[in-house]
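#struct-queue
[09:14] JT: dropping the first one here, sequence first, then the structure tokens:
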Amino acid sequence: MSKQTKYTLQEVTDARLEREWLDLPKRIYRGNRNWVCPLDPSIRAVFDPAKNDLFTGGEAIRWVLRDASGQVVGRIAAFYNREKAMLETQPTGGCGFFECIDDQQAADVMFDAARMWLASRGMEAMDGPINFGNRDSWWGLLVEGHEFQPLYENPYNPPYYKDLFERYGFCNYFNQHTYIWRSGITENSNRIFDRAAHLHATPGYHVENIDMKNLEEAAENFRIVYNKAWALFSGVKPLGRDEAMRLMRMLRPIIDPRIVFFAYFNDEPIGFFIMVPDLNRLIGKFNGK
């Protein structure tokens, strides 16, 4: 049976279709104790031009995939921003928010739609699965560690997604790692404390907790360190002052200043270490609301 007769692709154009698009993961992951339902407002904001600056010079589209009975069995989004696309050696758009039953034909219909839509806008390559936004949210495909609960707004997916992507032709571009560590005192952490004590004794170095009364200074120090560490990497745009301040304001409700640190050498910011409570431990029972 051909793709056209077995599956039907439908663009998300109204609230009813968006609701189906948002709700599909609840069926895909039913009974999976490690999956955490994302908050609807967080996902909607990605596709809201009033909240996502990448729509300036860019577009996004979403589809749901129906089987012959009309049931939604897949979803995907495609998007591009011309400024970011031109940072690559060839104009590159993205696809993401992919969810699908374990059926290669279903996945191919959605990948084809995303690829052709991007090509019609001048894109010569397609990254995925990625986010129409920064790499700190919804970026990448989980290929190991399915037995653990993901961190807030980090990807989680069934193991078979890797095969669906690779059979279509996607190849691994880079690896991202997330680690879990039991924070008891160990021989290893004692060595870390020794190194830290040596650094503290070296003139010029000092570490401070974030000053919640001066978030503008914290945002600027974060921006300086981030840009020196990351801005030269392919596809990474330098962080602007307004963007850094928006990030700080977003984090403010959950920041514990005791576990956010900035490092300085001769009063110049040289590093930061930011820990925040894992919100997935809190929102698991919210069902997206």
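[09:21] JT: and here's the second one, same format:
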Amino acid sequence: MLSLDDPHWSDLQHAYGSARDIPALLRQLADLPSSENDKEPWHSIWSSLAHQGDVYSASFAAVPHIIQVLASNPLRADVSYFQFPAWVEVCRAKSDVSIPENLAPDYFDSLSRLPTLVAAASSRHWDEGFLRVALSAVAAAKGQPAIAEAVLELSPEVAGKFMDWFYEG
């Protein structure tokens, strides 16, 4: 995993240019701050690294750090720690974005940890929103980005409409 002190972050890109500011944002995640109500550092992480469905070289360097923080306490981590890595993978696959060769192994290794981390969070309360994100994280980790994206959209209302459509056939 690219060290947060590595000067290579300046060579990576995010939505607004050089990613030299991303290590400072990732360091702020150490205490598992909430992402509720667009709180920082999550607001800046999302807007820089997964901007309107676009992902960047720095997105792939950041995911292993976010998953490492998630692994420190999956029972306490909020929804963004699970959703962000899944969404980056969904966007990567949809846009066919290439991952820099030096970042790909750590990126995919970290994604492979998501199913275990979802399982580790199984004793916490899961509302339907967290359920969708958890299922999406597992699908993304297992190489199913289209399913990961669909599950994120599958609210109870949408699921009901889908089942009605499915059984009409």
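[09:30] RK: nice, looked through the second one.
[09:31] RK: The first helix runs from residue 22 to 27.
[09:31] JT: good to know. The first strand starts at residue 13 and ends at 14.
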